[in-house]
Design goal:
This protein is mainly beta. It has one domain: Beta Barrel (Porin). The chain has 3 helices and 20 strands. It has a 16-stranded antiparallel beta barrel. The longest helix is centred in the N-terminal third of the chain and has 19 residues.
Length: about 400
C-alpha cells in the first residue's frame, strides 16, 4: 500500500508539472543523504539511584555504543515554481524503514504573492523568520547546532510578510503556536488567543558580510485540576504562559575565511518550541528518568541563554574546513507547575565539532566530522547535582543533490 501511495504521488506531481509548465517556470530538485557515524554515550548519573548506585542501565551498561548507517530524514524531493507575481515551493522528506519501504513527509509547502516591488506575502509552511543557518554541523541529521547555540524556529504554518527595507531584509510572521499542558496532571487544557509572532532583520554590508537581529513572542493560558490546599478534594488552577526571546548574529566572510557568531536570550523558550525539548537537552539522551521529567515540566519561568561560534577556511573550491561550538544554559528559580512546592534548577550544555566538507563532483559531497556533546549537570535544590553524561561521535555524511 505504501509503495502504491508513493507511485500515485509521483504520477500526480508529474501530471501537475506537465499541465502547469506552460504558465510557470518549474524547477524540480532532490537530495539523498546518508549518515554513517559511530557514537559512544556515557550515561553519567541518569540511571543512578539508591537501589542502583553503579548507574548502569537495565542491560548493565554505563556506556552505550552504536553505529548509525541511516538514510537521513531530511533527504528530500521538491520543486520551486515561478510566475509573474505568484511563486511557490513544495518539498517532501523521505524517511527510511529498516523493514523496507519508507514514508513521505511534508517539509515545505507555501506560496508567495509579490504585492509590491521587493515585497511579498507568504502563506503556508516554511522556515520561520528567526532561522539563520550559520553552523554546517552534519551529525544528527544536519543538526547545525540547532537549539544548542544556533537559534531555530522550525518549519511551521504561517502568514508572513517579507521584503527589502533599507540596506537589508525585514521578515515578520504570524506562526502556528506551540503549546503544552506541561504534564501537570491528566486533567489539563490550554487556550490560545493569538498566534506565535516572530520577526527578523538582516542588515547587509555587502555580499560577503551581514548582521541580523531577531525576536519573538507567544502567549497562551494553561488550566489544570490538582489537589486543593489541605489535600481535601480538587481545585482549579490556571497560569499565563508567556514566552519571548531576542537575539543577534552575524555572517562574516573574509576571502577564504568565515566567522559566524550568534547569541540569544529566552524566557520560557522551550514551551514555544524555540529550544527543542527538555529545555534544550538533545533528543539523543536516553528515555527520561522521573527526575528529568520533573524538571522538564518546570518551564513556566525558565531563563535560557544560547550562544554559538562557527569558524571556517576554504583552501580550495572543493574543500572547506569548519569548527564550531554551541552552548545553552537554562535555569529556573521560582514557579513550579506543582503549586505546592518551589524547585530551583540549572543546566549548562556544550557541543563541539570539527569537519571537512569535500566536494567530490558537482552536487556530490562527503563530510567527515567528529564531535562531542557535554550534557553537563542538572542541579536542583532537592535532588542535588546529577551528571547527565556526554556523547562523542565520529563519521561522515554522504550527499548527492540532483
Amino acid at each position: 500500500m505504501k509503495k502504491l501511495s508513493i507511485i500515485a504521488f509521483v504520477v500526480v506531481i508529474t501530471a501537475v508539472f506537465a499541465v502547469s509548465a506552460t504558465a510557470n517556470e518549474w524547477n524540480l530538485y532532490g537530495s539523498a543523504r546518508m549518515a554513517t557515524f559511530y557514537t559512544s554515550q556515557d550515561l553519567g548519573d541518569l540511571y543512578k539511584s539508591d537501589t542502583n548506585p553503579s548507574g548502569d542501565d537495565e542491560f548493565g551498561r554505563s556506556t552505550i555504543k552504536n553505529t548509525q548507517w541511516n538514510l537521513q530524514g531530511n533527504s528530500r524531493i521538491g520543486a520551486t515554481v515561478k510566475g509573474d507575481t505568484v511563486s511557490g515551493r513544495f518539498e517532501f522528506g523521505v524517511n527510511d524503514n529498516p523493514t523496507g519501504g519508507g514514508t513521505v513527509t511534508a517539509r515545505l509547502i507555501y506560496g508567495v504573492w509579490k504585492f509590491a516591488e521587493g515585497w511579498g506575502l507568504k502563506v503556508g509552511k516554511d522556515y520561520t523568520p528567526i532561522t539563520f543557518f550559520l553552523s554546517n554541523q552534519v551529525f544528527d541529521t544536519d543538526n547545525n547546532l540547532e537549539f544548542v547555540g544556533n537559534a531555530y524556529g522550525g518549519k511551521h504554518g504561517q502568514v508572513a510578510v517579507e521584503g527589502t527595507l533599507g540596506p537589508g531584509t525585514l521578515k515578520f510572521a504570524a506562526v502556528t503556536p506551540t503549546t503544552s499542558t506541561l504534564n501537570v496532571t491528566s486533567d489539563a487544557t490550554t487556550e490560545t488567543y493569538v498566534p506565535k509572532l516572530e520577526a527578523s532583520y538582516e542588515f547587509k554590508l555587502n555580499d560577503a558580510m551581514s548582521f541580523h537581529g531577531f525576536l519573538g513572542y507567544q502567549y497562551y493560558k494553561l488550566y489544570w485540576l490538582a489537589p486543593a490546599p489541605g489535600g481535601v478534594g480538587t481545585a482549579n488552577y490556571d497560569s499565563n504562559v508567556s514566552s519571548y526571546f531576542a537575539g543577534l548574529g552575524a555572517d562574516l566572510n573574509f576571502g577564504p575565511f568565515f566567522v559566524k557568531p550568534q547569541v540569544s536570550y529566552y524566557q520560557n523558550g522551550a514551551v514555544a518550541g524555540w529550544l527543542g525539548t527538555n529545555l534544550g537537552l538533545n533528543s539523543l539522551l536516553p528515555e527520561q528518568t522521573p527526575f528529568l521529567n520533573e524538571f522538564s515540566n518546570d518551564i513556566i519561568d525558565v531563563k535560557s541563554l544560547m550562544a554559538m561560534l562557527a569558524l571556517g577556511y576554504s583552501p580550495t573550491e572543493s574543500l572547506t574546513l569548519e569548527a564550531g561550538v554551541g552552548y545553552i544554559g537554562s535555569k529556573s528559580d521560582s514557579y513550579q507547575v506543582d503549586p505546592t512546592r518551589s524547585v530551583k534548577f540549572k543546566n549548562n550544555y556544550l557541543e563541539y565539532y570539527l569537519q571537512a566538507a569535500i566536494t567530490l563532483a558537482k552536487g556530490v559531497y562527503l563530510v567527515p566530522e567528529v564531535g562531542l556533546r557535554d550534557y553537563g549537570d542538572l542541579e536542583g535544590d532537592v535532588e542535588g547535582k546529577v551528571d547527565l553524561g556526554s556523547l562523542w561521535y565520529a563519521g561522515a555524511k554522504w550527499q548527492i543533490n540532483f
